[in-house]
Structure formats: structure tokens, C-alpha cells
Amino acid sequence: MRHEYECVIVGSGGAGLYSALETSAGAKTAVLSKLYPVRSHTGAAQGGISAALGNREEDKPEWHAFDTVKGGDYLVDQQAAMILARDAVQAVYDLENRGLPFSRTKDGRIDQRRFGGHTKEFGKGPVRRACYAADRTGHMILQTLYQQCIKNKVAFFDEFQVIDVILDGKTCKGVIAIELATGTLHTFAAKAVLFATGGFGRIFKITSNAFANTGDGPAVLARKGIPLQDMEFFQFHPTGIKGLGILITEAVRGEGGILRNSAGERFMEQYAPTLLDLAPRDMVSRAIMTEIAAGRGMRGDKKIDDYVDLNATHLDKGVLEAKLPDITDFCKTYLGVDPNHTPIPVLPTAHYAMGGIPTDLDGRVVVDEKGGIIHGLYAAGECACVSVHGANRLGTNSLLDLVVFGRRAGIHIEEYVKNIDFPAIPSDAAAEAEAQKWIDRLTDGKKGPHGGHITEEMQT
Ligand SMILES: Cc1cc2nc3c(=O)[nH]c(=O)nc-3n(C[C@H](O)[C@H](O)[C@H](O)COP(=O)(O)OP(=O)(O)OC[C@H]3O[C@@H](n4cnc5c(N)ncnc54)[C@H](O)[C@@H]3O)c2cc1C
After folding, report:
1. pTM surpassing 0.85?
2. Contacts of 458 (CB under 8 A, 6+ apart)
3. Cα 252 to Cα 254: distance, rounded to the nearest angstrom
4. 375 has which bridge partners?
5. Of 66, 129, 360, 394, which is most buried by a Cβ count within 10 Å?
6. In testing the pocket of ligand 1, which one of 42, 162, 185, 357 has its CB within 8 Å of the most ligand atoms?
7. Which class for 303: exposed (0-12), middle (13-18), buried (19 or more C-beta within 10 A)?
8. 16, 363 contact by CB (below 8 A)
9. DSSP state letter for 111
10. Which residue CA neighbors atom 38 of ligand 1 most closely?
11. Is 114 a catalytic residue?
């Protein structure tokens, strides 16, 4: 079956929906998503979105950009970091104006809390920079953007999984998707395609990521010979629920929670004397594993699955109830513990892909070291690598990345499609035949190793 849209967006998380908002202002836009849109992993984001609004104390985009570069171990594209920090302020107010119900200060402004690696005056001490809606910030972003896309008459193809991209030399001409309900293949001809397929934490056994985070976008493009960037930089979040990997947001530490070892010591004093428990994630994760290796985990057996305690029992009861209600629920449901009275057993969990599909500052996919591009091919969000997070992303900078760079890609696409005709593409049958070959290879089930076994081996 064949469809024609000026712009096709693959993925309906924060990045895909924000881009769609921009492209749909001038271009006929379709969003394809293998999930129902608001089930995207963006909806699981808890802690917040950063912006130097300065609502609780003085803050500046320059400080935010510095923290982003330093937190990324100086492997960040510094121009991208400046854009991220500068555009953050307007981006958050845009979300507010579009209806996002942020948590508020007593005088009615957007409230802000502390998060790892975010500092004032170039590292002097923690700053309140994370804007949040309780511990459901991503959920609120998705709902807000989805309703705005519906208003803008974006066409949604829910539960359509993209399995191939149509490239003709240096031009992208569309995608092939499988409709999950029927197994039918669909060809989407497009002037521009944006990949916003999210992360790939599911390559690991213990991860905070949803089951759907399997890295389809980077895989589809890699199969076509497009190189991926910074794939060795994968972030481990320090506080996953032990054994399960389910995320306990950094906001618990932002609100005053403390990590302790078996001797009851606040061990981050040894590793990061200024920022303590709010040091960047890579530092805190390494500190936890160092404590465990030294026999100071809670069990003390030096095994890799020992754990440390995240203690929030000293916080006011009202703080957990008002600002971290979902976390309290998770602990009760999955661990049978009430964080008001019992410390939470935590261990680092695979969390975020800094690397992915290489792009320039406008979301165009870059295919070689000279900055060569494929016309009409874009990427944004966690599947993309605009290199704004370097080797380690700061908490709350990802939701911001979706909005800032999703918006920039959307604006670029809207302009780009105005000036070109629909590209001629081969007949549906020819375009779909190649995709069908892939499906057949996976489903004939007669030769070679079992896909499930390969997955398990890789994850372990
Ligand atoms: C538990 C958790 C908490 C987090 N908390 C925070 C936080 O507080 N602050 C912060 O800044 N960041 C946070 N992050 C990181 C952040 O949420 C993610 O990086 C971000 O939401 C990714 O958004 P995205 O739009 O790129 O992709 P996603 O929201 O993951 O969406 C991907 C979309 O692509 C679609 N898709 C994928 N493959 C295909 C395919 N083949 N065909 C069609 N559609 C496809 C999916 O259906 C989905 O709609 C958190 C992450 C996790 C896992």
C-alpha cells in the first residue's frame, strides 16, 4: 500500500512530536510509531527538564553550557551545548504556553530543583535548574505535544513499525513500514524523513529502558551503510532498583536523598567533595561499583550484583508525597518497601545512549567525516548524536535535547520541503521486495542460530 506525505516522522516520543509540530505548520506530515504515541519512553521520564530560568536562585545559560561540556568529559560539541543552554529558556516557556502543567513555586512561577552536575558560577555548587511536573515530567510533555499535534492535523499511523528506508544515492525518498495488526507492508513516499526512534538500552540485561527501546532507527540506517557515532558512550544511571534496573530518579537525591554503604558512610564525600551525591552520573556509578568491589556494598561479598542504599527516610514526608509520588509507588510495588521508612536498594542501570545517528545542528544526517549529508534525511532525540552530550549526558538535558533539536530539525524540514518536488521512487513492489527479504530471513526459522538466544547472550 502506498502513501505520500511531504514529511514522514518515525517515532512519536518527545523528539518526533516536537518536530511534527514544527513541520505540520507548512508541510503535510505523518508520524509513524510502532507504539501507541503516548506509550513512548519519553513518558517514563521522571525528574525534569533543565533551563536556566533562575526562578529559585540566580542562573545563566552560560553556566548551563559549561556544565554540559564538563559533564560530557569535554567531548561535547561546544556550539551545540551553547544552543542547548540558550534555547532552553524559551523552549520551557513554549511548553508551558502549550499547556504543560509544571509544578509551581508559591508565587506561581515554574518550580526548579537540583540535579546532578548542574552548578552555579562554573562549578561552585549545585543550582536549582530542573523544571518538573512532580515525577511525571516526560508524561506531561508527551500529553502536551500529542494534543497539539492532533490540533495541527498531523496524520498518525499507530503501531506501524518502520523496517527500511528508501535511499537513492544521496537522497532519501521514504520508508517502508509493517502494519503490526495485519502484517501488511506500506510504502511511505516522502520529501523528508526524520528518525526519532529513541534509545537502545535493551541491548543490556539490566536497564531502565522500556522493552521497545531496541534501537531500530540506528539499525535501519546502519544496514544501509550509514556510520553511527560515539556508540561506545553508554550511560549507566547510578540508581536503578537492584536486580530490576527500574529507575529511581536522580530527583530523589536532588531533593536531599543520600547514598550510603554498609558502614553507613556517605561515600560520595570521598569521590566528589563539592557536589557529593549530585555529581555527574558516570562519577556516581563508578563510585558505587568501587565501594562494592572494596567489600563495602550492603552484602559485603564484592559481587557485581551487591548494592548500596539510597536513603530518603530523613526527608519530610510531604516531599515524597508531593514531589516524588511515582517513586514511592514503585518502591512499594516492586520492592515492598516504603521509602519514607526504609532505604532503597540501588545499583547502576543501563540508561542512555549518548551516541547514535550522526547529525549536524539542524538534524541533517551526516554520512562522512567531511560533513557530507543525504538530502531529506534527518534524525533527532536519543537515536541521534548531535554530540551535545559528549561521553556523559547530564540529567534533565535529554528532554531538553528533544525539544531544542527536535524543533530545529522540524524548522529545517519545513523550509527544505517547500523548494523540492516529490522524488520519483520505484514501484511499491520493488521498494517493498527488499524489506520482505529481511522479514523472510527472520521468519523462515530453519537455518542458523535462534534470534532470541543471540539477544540474550548480547544482553548478558
Ligand atoms: C526511566 C527513564 C527516565 C528518564 N528520565 C529523564 C528525565 O527526567 N529527564 C531527562 O531529560 N531525560 C530522562 N530520560 C531520558 C529521556 O526520557 C529519553 O532520552 C527521551 O525521552 C527519548 O525521547 P525520544 O523522543 O528520542 O524517543 P522515545 O520517547 O523513546 O520515543 C521513540 C519513538 O520511536 C518509535 N519507534 C521506535 N522504533 C520504531 C520503528 N522501527 N518504527 C516506528 N516507530 C518506532 C516508538 O514507537 C516511540 O514512539 C529518562 C529515560 C528513562 C528510560
Report:
1. yes
2. 203
3. 5
4. 171
5. 129
6. 42
7. exposed
8. no
9. P
10. 197
11. no
d(CA 98, CA 409): 19
CA gap 339, 256 in Å, rounded: 13
- How many angstroms separate the CA atoms of 66 and 436, rounded? 48
What is the tens place of the pLDDT at every residue in 375-411?
999 999 999 999 999 999 999 999 999 999 999 999 9
At residue 218's C-alpha, the angle toward residues 216 and 221, to 5°, is: 105
d(CA 4, CA 10): 14
Give me the pLDDT at residue 323, please.
87
Q: What is the pLDDT of residue 74?
A: 97
Q: Which among 397, 404, 400, 405 has a CA at the least distance from the CA of 70?
A: 397
CA of 262 to the centre of ligand 1 (A): 35
Task: Locate 283 and state its grid cell.
Answer: 562519577
φ, ψ for residue 441, nearest 5 deg: -60, -35
Separation of 438 CA from ligand 1 center, angstroms? 26
For 32, the enclosing helix (H) or strand (E) is strand 29-33
Cell of 29: 506530515
Grid coordinates of 235:
550511560
Q: Which three cell numbers stand for residue 103?
A: 509544578
C-alpha cell at 208: 531502565
* Domains of the chain by start residue, with CATH: 1-233+354-460 (3.50.50.60), 249-349 (3.90.700.10)
